[in-house]
Amino acid sequence: MKLVSRICLVASLVVLGVGPTGTSGTTGTPGPWNELALAIFPLKMTGIRFLGPDVPVVPDVPVGPTSAVYQRSSPRRIISIIPAVTEMLFAMGAGEQVVGVSSYDRYPAAVASRERVGALLDPNVERIFALKPDLVVVYGTQQELIARLDRAGVPTFGYQHAGLADITITIRRLGQRVGRSQEAERLAAQIERNIEEIRQRVSGRPRPRTALLFDRESGTLRGMYASAGVGFMHDMLEVAGGADAFADVKRQSLQLSAEMLLARAPEVIVEIQSSEGWNAEKIERERTVWQTLTSVPAVRTGRIHILADDRLSIPGPRVADAIRLLARVLHPAAFGAQ
Amino acid sequence: MTLHKTASPLRRGLPIVALCFVTMVAAVLAAPFIGSTPIRAREVFSPTVAFADNVDAQIFFIARLPRALAAALVGGALAAAGVVFQGLLRNPLATPYTLGVSAGAALGAMLAITFGASWPVVGSVELASLTGALVAVFVVYLLATARQQGLSSTVLLLAGVTLNAFFSALILFVQYASDYAQIFRALRWLMGDLDVVSYRPILSALPLVAIAFAGFAFLARPLNLLALGADAAGTRGVDIERAQRIAFLGGSLATGAAVSVGGPIGFVGIIVPHLVRLVVGADHRLVLPASTFFGAAFLVVCDMIARTVIAPIELPVGVVTAVIGGPFFLWLLLGKR
User: Fold this and answer.
1) Phi and psi for A102 in degrees, rounded to 5?
2) Distance (Å, rounded) from C-alpha A232 to C-alpha A212?
3) Integer Cα distance of A278 and A259 in angstroms
4) Can you tell me whether residue B179 is helix, strand or coil?
5) Which residues make Cβ contacts (< 8 Å) with residue A232, sequence separation at least 6?
6) Interface test with chain A among B62, B122, B179, by most A beta carbons within 10 Å
7) Residue B229 and residue B243: Cα distance in Å, rounded?
8) Of B183, B197, B267, the CB nearest to A1
């Protein structure tokens, strides 16, 4: 018990950003899996603020008294600690202005040449200052980092994951902020058109009851987490023509028990996994784990899909591609498959 | 006269042991019928519907019965191990986790969670945590027996506490090297989870728990005498060394097996033995079986509460044991005065 409480305490301190910040920014396994974790876990763990259904979403938090001054000039040295926002910046043609990215950034390939400045839990403030940024994109809960940047007069762009609609809202605001309004508008409009096209394509078709999982202990049906009735994953599933089996639970994530799956009886099970480490053989092996729950329609009809693709977990400009991936497995007929 | 004195509390305690046993059986039988989804007993045991198509039966036999059995196994093992460690160390604050078993198990689980995907040698979380527990037991045992013939409870305690701290530091190091998702999984594991979904984890832990309990069967009298002090026990013809070894290894084995199934669920191992002592007295012939049965029943009920109270969201069972166990114990403690 003592051990548990001690670990919980330290972990919560680390999560809250009280932990050591001066160490190397290259921790952990790479991969935008962490983008997803960033979307869902820290909100749960820190309890700082949970984006409920009726909580007004604040994708762009104007931070600090000095922010307004910097709004006039377009920044030339941007640091982004959020992989989704990094993608947005590159997609709107502001990639040249990006000088620093997080330790979890993998896309686009050009981020390989950018300086790494840590991530949500371990931003390297020293390296951030050394890069002389004139804009730092931070996560809304990084209060300490925001305060430190503010004291140093470095403007910040606050951001928090929310729903699907907030992606294009963020792109437009970000475009204004970095002096790329027109490009951002074009990008956002294109994403919205693509999303609308998918919505049209699956409209009128029966919507299969779908469980969208984003974590499970490999080899067993333990430690399962699913997207519930709030958040961009839920929104993606709905646009792709699925009916979220856990839509009534107004949370971003839900730990699933075997009973929950048996009771909700999803017709399709989609597991989102990282692009890395999931070959065809592993996917096939993990699909068989589900055979225990034979009364679940998805298991009986074999409609269990493990999609190992990072696009599905990053609420960035590639979100329409991600929705198309989902729509293809939910409505194969609508996409030309037999 | 002396005989009469010792026999009478034992005889008075036996019905309570029986009551604990009945409570355990009742809890295990009732728990699978209670849950967030209503199921009908007639459907569950229906001979006409195939099991593969029978949702009620699948909820009963796949989702709930393994959980109830796992809770009973884990609860019984932890409570018994708590009694044994408190007796062995002659310290009412001892828990099954005092001697480093849980820290070793936790380190194993952390390694499996963090590196399991890229380094399959580590194996499953269950196996890794069991291995970690056994390594910790082995190290503590070597330390405690290194300098002298017997098993010094002081050295045992110090070695265990030190190893706990050492493993905790390693755990934090591993966590610092993990990403958010892994840290979350690790934290969740520490909170305890009995949704085992299959009977395999129970069956693989069962032999270990059985061996431990076979050892416990010989421990009641030695533990009673140990309570009077090691020297006093020695003069009454008890092989103290052997009893201490059995207590330490048996308690550790039971703890390691329990933690590998459900994670380091707290409170059961310290609250249940004291609760039982408040009712039946200090005689280990009563405390040991009564704690085992009551611990099993207690954890089954706690897990039932964890999965129903704010369904469909589940509470971690470790939270429930502490939230319910703590105040209940204090109430009993104060009421007894």
Assistant:
1) -80, 170
2) 12
3) 27
4) coil
5) A39, A161, A162, A163, A164, A166, A167, A315, A319
6) B179
7) 13
8) B267
Alpha helix stretches (DSSP H) within chain B: 2-30, 41-44, 55-58, 65-89, 101-115, 125-146, 153-176, 180-191, 200-216, 220-226, 230-235, 240-262, 268-280, 284-308, 317-336
Q: How confident is the model at residue A70 (pLDDT cuts 50, 70, 90)?
A: very low
Cα separations (Å) of A201 from A208, A237, A243, A335, B196?
Answer: 15, 14, 16, 8, 41
Q: Pick the residue of A18, A260, A299 with the most B CBs within 10 A to test the interface with B by mutation.
A: A260
**A294 in contact with B at a CB cutoff of 8 Å?**
yes
Q: A269 to chain B, minimum CA–CA distance in Å?
A: 17
What one-character DSSP code corresponds to residue A61?
B
Identify the top-confidence range among A166-175, B192-201, B217-226. A166-175
Question: What integer pLDDT is reported at residue B282 of this predicted model?
Answer: 87
B93 touching A (Cβ < 8 Å): no
User: Contact, A234 vs A227, CB < 8 A?
Assistant: yes
**What are the tokens at B305?**
């509460």
Chain A residue numbers with beta carbons less than 8 Å from the beta carbon of B197 are: 220-222, 258, 292
Eight-state DSSP code of residue B316:
P
B48 touching A (Cβ < 8 Å): no
**Is the model's pLDDT at B318 over the cut of 50?**
yes
**Which of B180, B193, B271 should be substituted to probe chain A, the one whose Cβ sees the most A Cβ atoms within 10 Å?**
B180
Looking at residue B332, its pLDDT comes to 76
Interface of B with A in 254-273 (CB under 8 A): 264, 266-267, 270
Buried b (16+ CB within 10 A) or exposed e, A275-313: beebeeeebeebbebbebbbbbebbeeebbbbbbbbbbb
What pTM does this model have? 0.82
Query: Is the distance from CB of B250 to CB of B215 less than 8 angstroms?
Result: yes
Assign residue A61 a region: left if phi > 0, alpha if psi is -120 to 50, beta otherwise?
beta
* A8-67 confidence digits (pLDDT tens): 444 443 333 333 323 333 333 333 345 555 544 433 333 333 333 333 334 444 444 444
- Rounded to 5°, angle at Cα B214 from B213 and B218: 100
Phi then psi dihedrals of residue A321, to 5 deg: -60, -40
Longest CA span, chain B:
68
d(CA B157, CA A186): 68
Q: CB distance B187–A45 less than 8 Å? A: yes
- Each residue's pLDDT tens digit, A151-165: 999 999 988 888 999
**Separation of alpha carbons A245 and A248, rounded Å:** 8
Instruction: Check: CB of residue B96 under 8 Å from CB of residue B229.
Output: no
Could you tell me the CA-to-CA distances from B219 to A219, B92, B213 in Å, in that order? 39, 17, 10
Amino acid at B256: G
Q: Please provide the distance, in angstroms rounded to a whole number, between the alpha carbons at the two ends of chain B.
A: 29
Q: How many CB pairs under 8 A join A and B?
A: 150
Q: How far apart are CA B124 and CA B131, in angstroms?
A: 11
CA distance B41 to chain A (A): 16
Q: Which residues contact B111 (CB under 8 A, 6 or more apart)?
A: B122, B128, B132, B174
Which residues of chain B does A25 touch, with a Cβ-Cβ cutoff of 8 Å? none
